[in-house]
Fold each of these.
Amino acid sequence: MGTSSDSPQVRRVTAAEIARRAGVTAATVSYVMNGRPGVSDATRYKILNLAEELGYIPSALSVRLRSRHTRVIGAVLNDIAKSPFHDTEIAGGVIDAARTMGYEVFIANTGRDHSRLKVVLQAMADRGVDGILTTILEEGDADLIRSLRKAHLPYVQITRRLPLVEADFVGTDSETAATDLMDHLIGVHGYRDLVLMGGPQRSSASKEREAGNQRAAETHGVKIAPTDRLSCELSEADSYRATMEMLKRRRIPRAIICGADVIAWGALAALRDRGLRVPADVAVTGFGGREFLVSDASRLTTLQVPRQSIAVQAVSLLINRISGNGGAYRTVLLPSPLKLGNTCGC
């Protein structure tokens, strides 16, 4: 004996059917569903009304799409595995700040392949984010960022910026931080044989910190030779390698000033493996402010980066831009106070 069912058959509505009924292309439907510009209001409302009527999208999402805002922002980060403390804290701060303002966050990680930035930005645009925050801009990315402006997609630069691109920026006051550090190392401890070990020169943050350190040292009458201004990737392994190479070609410096805490960690490991004592033989400082135990009785002297404040300021600027209340582009530089540990000689 056969069986029968009284359950209604539910037919899944497709975007192609919406396009056919609305008399538009599938690409136009995709633009509307992702909240992207380039579609007239009349066509947008026609597609959304039809999609909601057929059950293609829920009514709550339909309301948001009509306003052309999804209340989602994107955050593009570096390799979290490579700089775990910096980017994870920035990400957490962005998520918390955005939620208090009624927004959710779509986070993407470019990993070790910076060329993926273009793909990541396009993916965010395709998903209809209302704006983008990025921490990873490098020299050569200007055209990518200008493409966001052409697409009317607001963005804010965090910690790294492109000097030739007008945009909002939130970062640290590297000049004041460098002055405070040099006042301590040279003015208090009397160190004059200094090596700078910064991050990659394609990063504006690395270049600003190095320039600030040089200028601050010169105010104390200390000139740092070009051969003593080193760059490495933001990893312990590359910092370790750079420190070992430096120790092979010159006498032991009195202090190594690192442009990031992760660089300081690699330098400390290299000094230890060379049998050198910190800070008795070589002082070491970082930049970032993460708690780092060098030994049972010693902690890294570093400059504190106010990541939570940076995140809150950046989200606020971006949402103002999304709301049309941004005004003139702003540069917000937050203080990085000196956090004394034992590696400087204190």
Amino acid sequence: MTTIVITGGTDGMGRALARTYLDRGDTVVIVGRDPAKAAALPQAHFIPADLSLVAENRRVTEEINDRYPAVHALVLCARYFRSTRFVTTEGLESTFALEYLSRFLLSHGLDRPRVIVNVSGPVPGVPIGRIHWDDLMLEHGYDGVAAQMQAGRANNLLDLAFANQHADGPTRYVLINPGPVSTSFAGQYDPATAAHVSALKRHGVPVEEGINPIIARIDTPLTEPLSAFLPADRISLDNPSFAPGDAARLDDLTRRLLHSQER
């Protein structure tokens, strides 16, 4: 029996993963906001949290480390699309906070999981998505898709920085872009984006199929500190999406940002 921690475990791919491992008899910890959705997985251990808040991530990390000292896998699935800019009570743009900062905090805060699977995008190697170095909170000209793409690129750099810092440790870090999956697509959408999401739901692969590459990496961790997949095909890390200088720069900016939250 192993312990699996899944953020976004009450919806879509996260919920399907939770069901898979619960059916195997494993210990599954799901982190999410909605107790009613968690009730549909009564065998899972539910930790209610708003992961767009730094303080909540720190609380969740402490609780998991105290209650589950031997985590096999941390799976980072939580996401929420916003067509209009939203600022959390901590003063952070919500997409950046939920889809990047939360993953940073949990990745670095959990006690030595065997594997971390970061379910994210954009597609490594494809020139979409960029870090807005002078405007990480997207105060100027916010766009929901741009916010998602920035978070995706930031996760590429998070993965690389983590692997470089912990190359001799036990944790194997995996980035998986699942491609078009007919998942829940939680969020608040403008009409044009909602139409696009509806098309993705019609034509995407079923969730039960979409989670297979994730299961493969949980069940059979690779030996390398970092690997990337789209969705099951291996992707080379030798491309601008994984620029070491950018990874170090974002890591430094993130740590300074989080330090400022402690004041």
Amino acid sequence: MNSEVRDVKTILGVAAVGVLVALTIVSRHGAAGGLLWLDIAVGVAGLALLPVLLRWPVAGALALSLLAALSPAATPTATLGALQVAQRRRLPVAVAVAASGVAAHAVQGWWRPSGGISYGWWLILITVAYGALLGWGALGRSRRALLESLRERARRAEAEQGRRVAEARMLERTRIAREMHDVLAHRLSLLATYAGALEYRPDAPPEQLARAAGVIRTGAHQALDELRDVIILLRDDDEDSGSRPQPVLADIPHLVEESRDAGTQVELRDEVTQPSALPAAAGRTAYRVVQEALTNARKHAADRPVHLTLTGRPGDSLVIDIRNPLPVDRSTGPAVPGSGTGLVGLTERVRLAGGRLDHEATGDEFRLHAWLPWPA
């Protein structure tokens, strides 16, 4: 708004000075009587039309061209009108307005010739002057269009940056939710199993009750430790993010032992060659796959055996096959409630690792099959 007000003041000042200069020149060259009063009236009328020129450039410029045909006092305002149209309208419209200005000055030079120049040179100078005004105005219009384009691009870039930040936050939240589910669901399902045993067997021997209570306490501490691991893992700027070891393929036997201690029958067949050669990211993904499968088995088929097979070697792939019979009575819900999105998140995790995960219930058996690449 301030720049627009400044531009209006500049136009009014330049036009007023131009009209005064034109009137001075006309009066010194012998204009007198009615012609002098005509020049003064035309100059005042030209200044009065400037607000019209600023609001309606084409109409104002044409009106000023008509005044220029009557008196040289309107020449400054008429040329200013042609410049305004060239800056604010398309080139064909600007050319038409400039042509009307040349025609008006041709009339002016015919009935009020200048004593120091021929009529032919007068037309040439007027035509060159209006051509220069067209070029100047087109240059200014192109410059404004460029600046507006740059401002629009800056606004779009800012909006795009905001969108990317929002997407990054959403992805981070999804990642946190997936890590929380993978890490804590297994541990809490173990605690629920032992707590259920305490609830349904209050008459158990004190030694068994004490052992179960100790397992619950240890599991709670481990759940807190794993929760802290997740938070540290997700904070990429944390200096201690790599201080705690993350689970890998070699930790799967320990995971199986935990499930066996909780009462799940797990049969493990490990046919992996050089398990230490598996990349850490793939090993972590494999661990989460087995962890989720054992957690789901405890939730949905707590009294059924689980068959776990691991096969693979460097330069080929790692294959995880997990099967367990479905419960006889499927009308009841799971023993431990869950979010219902564990396999969805697990499938996405495996896909991001470059692998593939399939799961299905066929007949009386549930099967989970995962494939992970293993570069040489």
